[in-house]
Structures are given as structure tokens and as C-alpha cells.
Specification:
- The chain is α+β, with helices and mostly antiparallel strands.
- The chain is about 25% helix and about 30% strand.
- It has a 5-stranded antiparallel β-sheet with strand order 3-2-1-4-5, covered by helices on one side.
- β4 and β5 form a beta hairpin.
- It is globular.
Length: about 100
């Protein structure tokens, strides 16, 4: 199973995902995919260093599926964190996937 690292931005409180250059992005689509245990251990180590520097808080890994260039968290809770509330697409954090009205 593939993983990505997530946390919350310490300044804004927003959900963020670790990128392959050890940066952070608000989009799960920009996250570094960690395909094996060695990569996961390295990613967590880099993320914990960012936590120690008080850039992010609450670092942990999540399981994802990657297909057709899309990253999708496998657990419902993480899909909500990635894409916003489940009430209506208009209120989604990722408005680029919602048609203009």
C-alpha cells in the first residue's frame, strides 16, 4: 500500500501534505507518494524534522491509492481532510473540480 505524509500547517491550521522536496502543499495531488517501508520511514523522518522546527504539527502517514495520475486517500476521514466537507461540492476546498455556476 502506498502512503503520503500529512500534518497541519502551524500558522494556518490547514491540512498539508509533504512534497518530494520536503516542502508542504495543501493539495493531496502534490504529495510525495511513498511506495515502500524504507521510503515511508525516510518521509516520516523528514516530516518530524519539520514538526520539530514548528512548521507543521501532528505529522502522520495515510494510506492512498494512486491511479490515472490521481491520489485518493483510502479512508473516509482522510478524503474529507483532503477534499473538504461532504455536504455540497460548492463548499469543497478544491473548487477547481467544481463547475462554475
Amino acid at each position: 500500500m502506498a502512503h503520503v505524509i500529512t500534518a497541519n500547517d502551524l500558522k494556518t491550521g490547514l491540512v498539508v501534505y509533504q512534497t518530494d522536496d520536503s516542502g508542504w502543499t495543501e493539495s493531496v495531488q502534490g504529495a510525495e507518494i511513498l511506495a515502500d517501508e524504507e521510503a515511508l520511514a525516510g518521509g516520516l523522518s523528514r516530516a518530524k524534522a519539520a514538526d520539530d522546527k514548528q512548521l507543521v504539527v501532528g505529522v502522520y502517514e495515510i494510506e492512498v491509492e494512486a491511479s490515472d495520475g490521481e491520489i485518493q486517500p483510502t479512508r473516509y476521514r482522510e478524503r474529507l481532510r483532503a477534499h473538504g466537507p461532504s455536504t455540497h461540492p460548492e463548499f469543497s476546498r478544491q473548487t477547481d473540480s467544481v463547475e462554475a455556476r
